[in-house]
């Protein structure tokens, strides 16, 4: 349930109302918008007399929120959320480009890629260190050593870093990682989500291969329910009957999520299509659709990459993409 307050309500009256609601065992989530203050009521709201609440002098309107996601709901927080990743802002008009290899492979590789993507305009460096591979015989990532190398690349370039976590026990290793990724395969690993909810770290939550947008938002809700509201959502392609591309990019997820939630939404065109030659087109489409950013795989030597080489852009290709993305942004503003 939400209660929208009238403008200019004195603080004492507002506190009185909040105290009364909390007295009924409810949690009150306050969001200060540009024009209105919205009180989001979480808990058993069946005891709240809607007519009584709506009839109070300081209350403009009262509405029940039927969706099961509350804190992630745009009705709860009508404004766009801005997530700060090591000083880089994402959301509410702040567009971000994240780039780097699928996996950290060596010191030389990650430092070179970090420098090159920064030169081309990337603001955050990606690099997988714990890799969720379909086959147990494939490269599994450099793990803790990979995180050390990413941190070195961060020191060299000043770029904040993002890497995927697969096990909550690894959280201490991610202390200096600016943005923690929950990959598609772990979107519904609820125990992991709960642990991440206890931290204050920004989380990049990727949509599962076969999950609905509502399920994605329920996963975000798990993290938010624990107190961590720093979440960036990522659409990275879903499973359909089509096999020509690795997955099918659901561009309609962008305007849909923009209606459903206040959280920033970015797109991963690399995992969505699986082919480097198609990545630029999907990046432009996502930008034109209003995404808050892109996460793109870039490699110094795609042919010999230990993971996802076929979908990785070269430095030159990435530079061209960032330039054209900028043009698309200018065209749609
Ligand atoms: C990745 O970002 O390298 C990755 C494994 O992504 P996803 O979870 O979307 O497959
Ligand atoms: Mn990858």
Tell me what the structure shows.
It contains ten helices and 14 strands. With 333 residues, it is α/β, with parallel strands linked by helices. α5 crosses α6. An eight-stranded parallel β-barrel has the order 7-8-9-10-11-12-13-14, surrounded by five helices. A four-stranded antiparallel sheet has the order 2-3-1-4. The radius of gyration is 21 Å and the shape is elongated. The chain has two domains: 62 residues, Alpha-Beta Plaits, CATH 3.30.70.1140; 250 residues, TIM Barrel, CATH 3.20.20.70. The chain binds phosphoenolpyruvate and manganese (II) ion. The site of phosphoenolpyruvate has 10 residues, from loops.
Helical residue percent band? 25-40%
CATH superfamily of the largest domain: Aldolase class I
Uncertain spans:
none
Number of strands: 14
Mean pLDDT: 96
Biggest sheet details: 8 strands, parallel, barrel
**How would you sum up the global shape?**
elongated
How far is the first residue's CA from the last residue's CA?
34 Å
CATH architecture level-2 label of the largest domain: Alpha-Beta Barrel
Number of helices: 10
Widest beta sheet: strand line-up: 7-8-9-10-11-12-13-14
Strand proportion: 15-25%
Rounded radius of gyration (Å): 21 Å
Q: Do you know the CATH topology of the largest domain?
A: TIM Barrel
- Which ligands occur here? phosphoenolpyruvate, manganese (II) ion
Q: Give the C-level CATH assignment of the largest domain.
A: Alpha Beta
Order of helices and strands: EHEEHEEEEHEHEEHEHEHEHHEH
Number of domains: 2
What topology does this entry show?
Elements: E1 2-5, H1 11-23, E2 27-32, E3 37-42, H2 50-55, E4 59-63, E5 83-85, E6 88-90, E7 96-100, H3 107-120, E8 124-126, H4 143-157, E9 161-164, E10 179-182, H5 190-197, E11 203-206, H6 213-225, E12 231-235, H7 253-260, E13 265-267, H8 269-273, H9 279-288, E14 293-297, H10 315-332
Parallel strand pairs: 7-8, 7-14, 8-9, 9-10, 10-11, 11-12, 12-13, 13-14
Antiparallel strand pairs: 1-3, 1-4, 2-3, 5-6
Helix pairs in contact: 3-4, 3-10, 5-6, 9-10
The chain binds phosphoenolpyruvate (PEP) and manganese (II) ion.
């Amino acid at each position: 349930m939400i209660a929208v307050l009238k403008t200019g309500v004195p603080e004492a009256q507002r506190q009185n109302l909040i105290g009364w609601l909390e007295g009924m065992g409810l949690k009150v989530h306050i969001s200060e918008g540009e024009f209105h203050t919205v009180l989001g009521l979480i808990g058993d709201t069946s005891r709240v007399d809607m007519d009584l609440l709506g009839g109070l002098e300081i209350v403009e309107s009262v509405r029940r929120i039927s969706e099961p996601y509350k804190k992630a709901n745009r009705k709860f927080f009508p404004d766009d959320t801005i997530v700060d990743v090591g000083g880089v802002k994402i959301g509410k008009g702040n567009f971000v480009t994240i780039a780097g290899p699928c996996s950290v492979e060596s010191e030389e590789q990650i430092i070179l890629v970090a420098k090159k993507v920064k030169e081309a305009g990337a603001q955050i460096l990606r690099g997988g260190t714990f890799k969720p591979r379909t086959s147990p015989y494939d490269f599994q990532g450099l793990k803790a050593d990979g995180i050390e190398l990413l941190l070195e690349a961060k020191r060299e370039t000043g770029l904040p870093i993002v890497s995927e976590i697969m096990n909550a026990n690894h959280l201490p290793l991610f202390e200096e990682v600016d943005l923690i990724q929950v990959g598609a395969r772990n979107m519904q690993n609820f125990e992991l989500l709960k642990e991440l909810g206890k931290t204050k770290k920004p989380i990049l939550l990727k949509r599962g291969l076969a999950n609905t947008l509502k399920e994605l938002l329920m996963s975000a809700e798990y993290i938010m329910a624990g107190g961590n509201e720093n979440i960036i959502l990522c659409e990275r392609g879903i499973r359909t009957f089509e096999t020509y591309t690795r997955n099918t990019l659901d561009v309609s997820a962008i305007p849909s999520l923009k209606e459903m939630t206040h959280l920033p939404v970015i797109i991963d065109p690399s995992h969505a299509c699986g082919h480097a030659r198609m990545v630029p087109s999907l990046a432009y489409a996502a930008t034109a659709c209003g995404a808050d950013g892109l996460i793109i795989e870039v490699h110094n030597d795609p042919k010999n990459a230990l993971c996802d080489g076929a979908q990785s852009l070269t430095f030159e290709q990435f530079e061209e993409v960032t330039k054209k993305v900028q043009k698309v942004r200018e065209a749609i503003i």
